[in-house]
Design goal:
The chain is mostly helical and 191 residues long. It has helices spanning 5-12, 16-23, 28-34, 54-84, 92-131, 136-150, 155-177, 179-190. It is found in: Mitochondrion inner membrane.
Length: 191
């Protein structure tokens, strides 16, 4: 196969600038698609909210509580394991005992917080669907009912303590969540 020298040179050894132009060539369609827009990048059904509802947030809540419980339990298990084996020399039995304590405590706390989050999320979704409104009353009611059900094995006194603990924690959360709104309302009333 015989080729002329000029064709070979142009074909096989293009100049750097020509090669760069070919690589960086962008069509008009690509230029429009590469432009930044301030609109949302997802399509919502007609009448849908941009915020997530309780049901969508339930998965995040449950998973987050399980992971938080596992991390807290692992640290607590390490603390307890080191405390219980402080008289032992560093050896395999001591390491195994510490790891067992870390695993046991991590699973215990993950299960506890995950169960509480599951109950809270289920009550929250049920209350929201029943009432047809999403507000802080749902949050406080779900927390109170979660505490009551979680401590129901302790009799009426346990139910009352659990309900009071749930009511207190969710009321504090609702207060924290609406602090800016309440502060603005107080400032308007004082003027």
């Amino acid at each position: 196969m015989v080729r002329t020298e000029a064709k070979d040179k142009d074909f096989y050894f293009p100049t750097y600038q020509a090669k760069w132009r070919r690589l960086c060539a962008v069509s008009p369609v690509q230029e429009r698609s590469l432009e930044r827009t301030d609109t949302d990048e997802f399509i919502l059904p007609t009448g849908a909210n941009k915020t997530r509802g309780r049901f969508e947030l339930a998965f995040l809540t449950i998973g987050g509580c399980c992971m938080t419980g596992a991390a807290f339990g692992a640290v607590n298990g390490l603390r307890l394991g080191l405390k219980e084996t402080q008289n032992m020399a560093w050896s395999k039995p001591r390491n195994v005992q510490i790891l067992n304590m870390v695993t046991r405590q991590g699973a215990l706390w993950a299960n506890t917080l995950g169960s509480l989050a599951l109950l809270y999320s289920a009550f929250g979704v049920i209350i929201e669907k029943t009432r047809g409104a999403e507000d802080d009353l749902n949050t406080v009611a779900a927390g109170t009912m979660t505490g009551m059900l979680y401590k129901c094995t302790g009799g009426l006194r346990g139910v009352a303590r659990g309900g009071l603990a749930g009511l207190t924690l969710t009321s504090l959360y609702a207060l924290y969540n609406n602090w800016e709104h309440m502060k603005g309302s107080f400032l308007q009333q004082s003027l």
